[in-house]
Every structure is written in C-alpha cells, then in structure tokens.
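Here we describe the complex-level prediction in full. Unlike the single-chain runs in Section 2.1, the four entities below were treated as one system.
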Amino acid sequence: MDLSYSEENYLKSIFNLLATNTTAAVGTTELAMQLSVKPASVNEMLKKLKAKKMVDYKKYGKIKLTKAGKTIAVDVVRKHRLWETFLYEKLDFSWDEVHEVAEELEHIQSRKLINSLDKFLNYPRFDPHGDPIPDEVGVIQQQSKKTLSEVAIGATCKMVAVKDNSSSFLQYVISLGLGINNSIKVMSRESFDGQMSIRINGETKTVSQKFSENIYVI
Amino acid sequence: MDLSYSEENYLKSIFNLLATNTTAAVGTTELAMQLSVKPASVNEMLKKLKAKKMVDYKKYGKIKLTKAGKTIAVDVVRKHRLWETFLYEKLDFSWDEVHEVAEELEHIQSRKLINSLDKFLNYPRFDPHGDPIPDEVGVIQQQSKKTLSEVAIGATCKMVAVKDNSSSFLQYVISLGLGINNSIKVMSRESFDGQMSIRINGETKTVSQKFSENIYVI
DNA sequence: TAATTTTATTAGGCATACCTAACAAAGTTA
DNA sequence: TAACTTTGTTAGGTATGCCTAATAAAATTA
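The structure predicted for the assembly as a whole is:
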C-alpha cells in the first residue's frame, strides 16, 4: 500500500505520540497540535487511514495504529533517523539543524536508497538525538532510560537522548555545554517547582523542571 | 520565491528541453509529453508560472524561461545531478538506477544540504551520465560535444555523456559494454537508415541511428 | 488559398488536504 | 446531576494539480 506524504506524516506522528506519551492511545486535538493542523483535518484524515486499515479508530474514540500502520510509521521513523545521522556525520550539520531537513528526506520512496544509506553509515543504532534507529525489519533497540527530572539528588547520570527535537530546545542544550554521553550530577532540586541544580563538566547550572523532563539519562 | 514540487518540475523540464533540443523555445504538447501530463494541464500551469514571472509566454506562443525561471531550473538540475552523483559514488547505485530516485531528491529544500553535499562529493563537475553539474552560482561547464551519429567513418571518439537518461536506454548501453570515457571507433554507416558498425574494446557492434543520436562523444 | 491536421485553449470535473463555523458528544466540576 | 468546558464531528469552502471534451488558432498540405 502506497501512502501519500501526508498520510505518512499522520502515521509517524501517531507513532511518536504513542512512544513519547505514557498513554496507550492518542486524541484528535493532540494529533492536530503535533501536525500543526486543525482537529477537523485530522478527523478527515482518520477516516481515510481507517479505510486503508492503517488506524484503529471509532467515532469519539482514541486513535491507535494497526499492525500495518505501525509498520509504515516505523519505516518512516527509520528513514528520518538515518537521514539525521547522515546529515550530522557526513554533511557536518549541527545537532539542531538535522530534524527539519530529515522531515523532508524521510518521504523519499526507495527501499534500496535507505538500506544503502544504512550500510554507508555502518548500521548506526542511534541518531544524533540519541533516539534508536529501527532496523530493516522494524525492530527498535529500546534503552531503559529515564528523564533527568527523575534522578535522585547526589546521583550522577549520563545523558543519552533528548525528548524534544526542536531547534530552540537543542540550541539551549548546546548553550549549557551539554551533549549526548555527557555526565550530569544532580546537586539539588526545589520541591516547589522542580527546578534543579546540575553539574556539567565542572560547571554548575540551574535548569527548570520542563527542561529536565526533556533530557533522557541512564 | 518558493515554488511547489510541480512548478519546479515544469521549470526543469522546460530547461531540459531547451538544452537538449536545437530549438530556442518549447511548445505545450512537447512539454506535456516530457512531464507525462496532458497539454491542458500544461496550459494551466503556464498561467501560474507566468503570473510568478518564471516563464515568458503568450497565448499560442512558445515557452521560454525568464531569468528568474532559469535560475530556479538550474538549481533543480544542480540538485538532481549532485544527488545522482551521490547515489552512484557513495551508495553503489548503478548507472540506470540513479535518475528515478534523484527525481524525488531534487526537490528537497535546503541550501545548506546541497552545498554540503557538493563539498562532501568533492565538487564533482559531471554526473554519472556525463552531464555537467551547475555550480553554486548556476554556472554550467559546457563541453563541446557531438553525437556519435555525427562522427566520421574511420574516426575514433570518446563517449562523454548520454542524452537519454531512461533506465531502459542505459541498460542497453551497459549491455553493449559501453560507459563514460570509453573509446568508440566508427567502422561503417548505412546511408539508408544510419545504422552503424562500431568497435568497443575490440568488439564490433551494430547500432541504430536512434542509438547513436543518444550518445555524446568528443 | 482552402481544406485538413496539429497544436493550444477553455470549460467543467475530480481528488487531496487543508480551512472555518456550527454543532454534538464526552469529560469535569460545582 | 446539572452546568460548563473540552474534545470531536460535520458541513461547506478553498487551492493545487490533474483530467476529458469541446473549441479555437496555427501550421501544413493539397
């Protein structure tokens, strides 16, 4: 089944919301926000995707992916992350620049292209943001990670990924001197608002709860 | 001015027809054939492109590119040929496989992407089919070449490019044992139908006029 | 030049994917 | 549980880019 650029984006977004959120299903408004479209448009598209047996959905219900839908979504995610890796490693793109271009590249249709790219990059397992890259058959290596906000005071952890891939967030991360595989020591945490003091490369920084919830560590 | 995928394709096709044909302008039907759409669709699009000052056109007249239109077309051609080179040199695509995928890749919008790719490939000047790759400012290195059909009997020439980039033609070229930079000696030519006998790597082959008109040599 | 053929244009439709505005269902809170 | 808020749906509209069928202009040939 060949899907349009838009249909692929819907499936990918549903997949990403399911992967990021704690919930097992997604709502219309939530998906609309993720895709920067209106809920009415999402509703329309869900009918199409349901007719194509890509989503599991009934009126006023929650959105889930069917097996076929998940297969497509994972494939798009694989392409996205491989392209990000290519841009970062081979074309000297910075951490915060790769996402936007990969949003376009992920829709190029060619099995051979993506598998050759995978080989060319020497079968990378994680993209520049620390997200796992699905393999050719769709298997995703899951890393048991938690957010920085969950780390105990006094403990030291290692940053392995970021939740938010937006350019503005990543630029802020860079400005703090942080990157994948850096060590972070949690010095203190305000119980009032979750703001915390962390130590990175000998420097102490103060970050918000919102920030620490977007950094994955092990 | 940001153009759609389709608009870019129209400009590219006009440019390619102008470059390939001997004529200085292009007709509606000709362009429709090149794009695999109907003349009515071309006519419609020409109105849009004219409104955007990308083509020079009046009712029942011939189609030309404006300066702005040519700039865009050359940029798309640059992207196409750089991607073809990437696929061929880095991802082990064969000669006849690169065109189709490059048709998609050429529309990715990112100045940085294409210039980084150019650098990564070490600023190639010709693509795998021997076509010149426009540089960052749109300059195209023209090679004074002729078709194999024009070579004198008894003369030896060097194949530098192909006119037709279709997979079927290229596969035939490969099957003859021919590739870019190969030497070809013209043994004889039928004045009746232009069929000719050529010598490649010590082997003699008989090829049609249609074939020899699609091989560029110096 | 008149008839014919080719080429180009217009009118009216269709599918995709978006939108706004009005309305309906579900969920929340007093 | 009634009122209110949030979430989801429907109806009707828009732009893009394609189509067919009818028509008009241009080019060719008799």
